[in-house]
Each structure stands twice: as structure tokens, then as C-alpha cells.
Design goal:
Elements: H1 2-11, E1 13-14, H2 16-22, H3 27-39, E2 43-48, E3 62-66, H4 71-84
Antiparallel strand pairs: 1-3, 2-3
Helix pairs in contact: 2-3
């Protein structure tokens, strides 16, 4: 979880897809870390990514952010996930 928290400190916002790819971690590990950081009150949901073209359905990704993250940090996480077709929540 410390690696994930460090990522948020450096980038301000991320989706599970960002974490999985940038930190080279298994998807389940990314979700667990997000859940723990949310429970501890370090991150909050900033926005949900709208339906991604060619998506097979399923839940839509959420951009998680540190309280006080800039709009630019949230937008970066959103665009990285959206452009890649990332499907993590």
C-alpha cells in the first residue's frame, strides 16, 4: 500500500488501471490498495469515467484522488485511462 500512496503523493490522482500499469502490480493488488486508502480517508472518488468505446461492459472506471488534488491531476488520470481503453474500476 505504501507504493500506491507514494504514487498518489506524486501524481495526485489515479485509476486502478493507472496503478496496475505504472506500478506493475496485479489488478487485485491495485483494488486492495485503493480500498485501504479509501477506508483510511486518504483518497476520495473524483469522477467516474464515461463508457469507453469498444468496452465489453462492466463497471466504469473511477478516478481516485487525494483531497485537494488539482483538476489537472484528475484530468491526466482520466485521459490516460480513457485513451488506453483501461477498464479497471
Amino acid at each position: 500500500m505504501s507504493e500506491t500512496f507514494t504514487y498518489f503523493c506524486l501524481h495526485g490522482a489515479a485509476t486502478a488501471w493507472n496503478l496496475r500499469n505504472e506500478l506493475d502490480m496485479p489488478e487485485a493488488t491495485a483494488y486492495r490498495a485503493l480500498k485501504q486508502l479509501k477506508i483510511l480517508g486518504f483518497i476520495v472518488p473524483a469522477l467516474k469515467v464515461s463508457k469507453i468505446t469498444h468496452s465489453k461492459g462492466g463497471p466504469r472506471p473511477t478516478v481516485w484522488a487525494l483531497d485537494g488534488a488539482s483538476q489537472e491531476e484528475v484530468a491526466r488520470a482520466y485521459h490516460e485511462t480513457r485513451e488506453s481503453g483501461g477498464v479497471c474500476v
